[in-house]
Amino acid sequence: MLYAVVDIETTGGFASGNGITEISILVHDGQEVVNVFETLINPEQDIPPYIESLTGISNDMVMTAPVFKDVAAQIYELLHDKIFVAHNVNFDFSFIRHQLMQSGYELNSRKLCTVRLSRKILPGHKSYSLGKLCAALNISVSNRHRAGGDAAATAILLTRLITEDAENIIAQTLHKFSKEQALPPNLPKSQIDRLPSVPGVYYFKDQKGKVIYIGKAKNIKKRVCTHFTGNNISKQRQDFLQHIYTVDFEVCGTELMAFILEATEIKRLWPENNRALKRHEQKYGLYVFEDQKGYMRLMVDKYKKQSPALYSFNTQLEGYDLLRLLIKEHLLCEKLCFIQKNRIACTGHEEGKCSGACVGKESAAAYNVRVKYAIEYLKTILPTFAVMGEGRNEDEKSCLLVEQGKFYGMGYISPHTDVEGAEMLKSVLQPYPSDDYILNLIISHVQQFPQRKVVI
C-alpha cells in the first residue's frame, strides 16, 4: 500500500477563492519515502502580505512558476491510486481536488489525517499542531511553513504512527465503511459514536465550549454526520468545520419539539453560524394604550420586543382583519383604532355604529368599557389546545400547550394522564417564549395530524 504525503501553501484559507502557491508530494511505502515531487505554483492571483510573511513565498518567486493546470496531470498520477495523507487532510484535499477538477480530473482518493491518527495512536499531547507535535516527538522540521519541510515532517510522523499502531487503527480508519476521515480535524470520533438516532437538538461547540451552531433533527446522529459530507469549499464551511471540537445534544420526544427547541435555543444563544432563524422576527402586533384624553386605543403596529402584544401576526393584513372584527363586534371607533385617518369623525359614527368617541361625544370611561370587553372577547376566540405525541421513552408522552393563541410551553407527562385543563398542564410543562414561527409550526403540525390535537 502506497501513501501520498501532501502539503501545500496557499493564498488563503478556502479553496473556492484562493490558489495554491506550493505543493509537495512524498510517496511513502509504509516504511520510507520512495518518491518526491515538489514545485512552486503560480496561483494567478496576488499573495497577501501576511501569507508572504508566514511562508516566505512572494509574488516574484511564483511569477515564472507553472500554473496548476501545467502540472495537473503529473499531480493526478501521483495521487489517484494512493492513500492521500496530510496534517488536517481535508484542508489540503479540498484545494487539490478543486484545482484538479478545474483542470479536468476528478480525485476520489481515500484519506488519512495525521492530526486525527495522532490523537488516537499518540494520545496525551497538549497540542496536535504539526510544529508542536513534532517538537514533542523530537521530529526535526526544517523550512517550517513551506510545503517541502512540512511534508517531510508529516512523512516522518506517518512512519511513527504506522510503527506504533498496535491497535490497527489505520486499517480501521481506511475501512470502506469508516467515515472518520470526513470528520473535522478537532472532533473526536467518540463524540459521534455517543450520538443517539432519535429526534432532538444538537450543539456544535468550539475549543472553549462556546456554542457555534445549533441544529434540529429527526435523527440526531444521521443529521450531524451530514454536516461533514460533500465537498463544499467555501470559506464559511472551512472555518466552521475547523472550529468544531465537541457535539452536545438534547433528546426530544418528537420532531416538532426539536423544531421548537432549536428556534428557542438559537434566539437564546445566538450562535455565529446560525443565520436563517435569526432573521425570523414577528412583524406586527395588536397593542392597546391609553391616550392623553384617557381613551384606550387598539392599534396594529410593527412588533415591539419591549411592549407586550395582545396578539401577533405575520402580515399587517392579518392584524387589520382581526382588529376590524373587534370593531364590528364591540362598536369601537375606527378612528381611535387607527383604521381611518384624516377625518374629523369616523364613518361608523355617521352610520350609527360608533357612539362618537372620535368627536368627544362619548366619554373615555364609557368607551373603555367596550374596549375591555373586546380584549376579553379576543381571549375567547383565540384557541387553547394541547398537542400530544410520543415521549422519549415508553413511560411518558410529549405535550405542547397553546393558550389563547400563544404557545405556552412543552414537556412530558404520564401516558395515563387525562388532559383536563390548561392550568393542570401548566403546572408540569416548561414555559417557552412564543412567536409566529413557533405557532405556525404547531398549526401546520395539527393540520397534518389532527388526531394529536386536544381542544381544552
UniProtKB/TrEMBL annotation:
Pfam families: GIY-YIG, RNase_T. The keyword Hydrolase applies. GO terms for molecular function: DNA binding; DNA-directed DNA polymerase activity; exonuclease activity. GO terms for cellular component: excinuclease repair complex. GO terms for biological process: DNA replication; nucleotide-excision repair; SOS response. Signal peptide: none annotated. Keywords: DNA damage, DNA excision, DNA repair, Excision nuclease, Hydrolase, SOS response. SMART domains: EXOIII (SM00479), GIYc (SM00465). Residues 197-275 form the GIY-YIG domain. Coiled coil: none annotated. The keyword Mitochondrion does not apply. NCBIfam families: dnaq. DNA polymerase III is a complex, multichain enzyme responsible for most of the replicative synthesis in bacteria. The epsilon subunit contain the editing function and is a proofreading 3'-5' exonuclease. DNA polymerase III contains a core (composed of alpha, epsilon and theta chains) that associates with a tau subunit. This core dimerizes to form the POLIII' complex. PolIII' associates with the gamma complex (composed of gamma, delta, delta', psi and chi chains) and with the beta chain to form the complete DNA polymerase III complex. This is Excinuclease cho. It comes from Pedobacter hiemivivus. The lineage of its organism: Bacteria, Pseudomonadati, Bacteroidota, Sphingobacteriia, Sphingobacteriales.
